[in-house]
Amino acid sequence: MRSAKDFFRPLAVGAPEPPQSIPARPSRAIHFFDPSNEKMAAKVPDMVGTVDVLLGNLEDAVKADRKEAARAGLVDIAKGTAGLGGKSGPTQLWTRVNALDSPWVLDDLTTLVTEIGDRLDVVMVPKVQGAEDIHYVDRLLAQLEARAGLEEPLLVHAILETARGVANVEEICGASPRMQGLSLGPADLASDRRMKTTRVGGGHPGYLVREDPEPQQPDKVRQSYQQDLWHYTIARMVDACAMHGIYPYYGPFGDIADERACEDQFRNAFLLGCVGAWSLHPKQIAIANRVFSPSADDVRHARRVVAAMGDGTGAVMLDGKMEDDASLKQCLVMVELAEQLAEIDPDLKKLYEGIDT
Ligand code: GLV
Ligand code: MG
To answer: Among 48, 88, 181, 250, which residue has the least CB neighbours within 10 Å?
Structure first.
């Protein structure tokens, strides 16, 4: 057992102190790009400022013979792109490294931390199984940060995409002060659980409940209602993250053409407590930005409740509905999020400032 007193001590001599809290930086869309793909890499500079997070992906979707090119490409992009990553950049720079049992991850971490550790904000670790995976990354990052002379600690984000990872979700979130958040990884999770689906995220028409038959009308069409395959996992992930003061995200939605269903999945995640989702195509950035920003109506209502509740205690009636300390706290979540987003998004700033309560 580690003493609570040691939790915020660096894990290597010369490494920066671990963070005591994780800043709520807007991260509505985490846009994935393959740094070994020249066409994609060329678009990165123009995307800075248009998306909250750009993520250089080194893991799945990058072919084995392109792994080294992807790693080197990410180093070049980070060094050569103004405004990307680091504390001041409008767009954060994240990476997804290869899995901890792969032949590439040691070089991924060593190269990225020593070459561009001051530009990288978050390291996403795939296929995390338990706290031991985070402990390994935690110590290694501390050693590399010390070697690179970094002043700020890197943050770690785990993908929840194995059955064991889901079973251990709380201990993963609490395994290091560096933990920034979790993403649902529906594709790997489906295969690891032996689910009988063949998709990347989203629903399935076969996963449904049907209304009871009418004994007097045996031929009547019985309505069925599709259910959300991911509800259980997202709800567990949200609770584990909230318990540890870190952030939950929906992961990938693979059917790029189905913008409507993508928006629905993202909105379910937003309503349950997630702060963002992955984007696999530029058009998913717009969807995530729309969904993970409170609407003008929500902000208007939240501000009215805050104003009506005065010192925050007791209860008031507003439009026929009871509001009290607990509904006020929900409204404050909405108001605070709107304030954070207005700071980085001029369109939202205008929208929220123009709200008439
Ligand atoms: C993401 O990595 C997934 O497996 O869904
Ligand atoms: Mg995966």
So the answer is: 88
Three-state DSSP state, 31: strand
* Residue from 55, 95, 161 to probe ligand 1 pocket by mutation (most atoms less than 8 Å from CB): 161
Residue 39 has pLDDT above 90, yes or no: yes
Q: For the segment 110-159, what is each residue's pLDDT rounded down to a tens digit?
A: 999 999 999 999 999 999 999 999 999 999 999 999 999 999 999 999 99
C-beta of 159 in contact with ligand 1 (< 6 A) = yes
| Cβ atoms 178, 122 nearer than 8 A | no
Say yes or no: CB of residue 184 within 6 Å of ligand 1. Answer: no
Q: How far is CA 43 from CA 137, 280, 333, in A?
A: 31, 14, 34
Q: How far is Cα 79 from Cα 74, in angstroms, rounded to an integer?
A: 8
pTM: 0.96
Give the alpha-carbon dihedral of 101, 106, 159, 344, to 10 degrees: -170
In the DSSP assignment, the letter for residue 2 is -
Q: Tell which phi-psi region holds residue 127, choosing left (phi > 0), alpha (psi between -120 and 50) or beta.
A: left
> What sign does the dihedral 16-18-19-25 (CA atoms) show?
positive
Q: Which of 297, 324, 300 is nearest to 313 (CA)?
A: 324
Domains parsed from the chain with CATH numbers: 4-292 (3.20.20.60), 297-353 (no CATH)
Q: Give the nearest ligand 1 atom to 96 CA.
A: 2
How close is the Cα of 97 to the center of ligand 2, in Å? 11
> In this structure, which ligand is nearest to the CA of 197?
1
Task: State the virtual CA torsion across 165, 169, 175, 179 in degrees, nearest 10.
Answer: 100
Q: Are 346 and 352 in contact (CB under 8 A)?
A: no
Q: Where are the alpha helices (DSSP H) in 128-258?
A: 131-148, 163-167, 169-173, 186-193, 231-244
Contact (Cβ atoms closer than 8 angstroms) between residue 262 and residue 287: yes
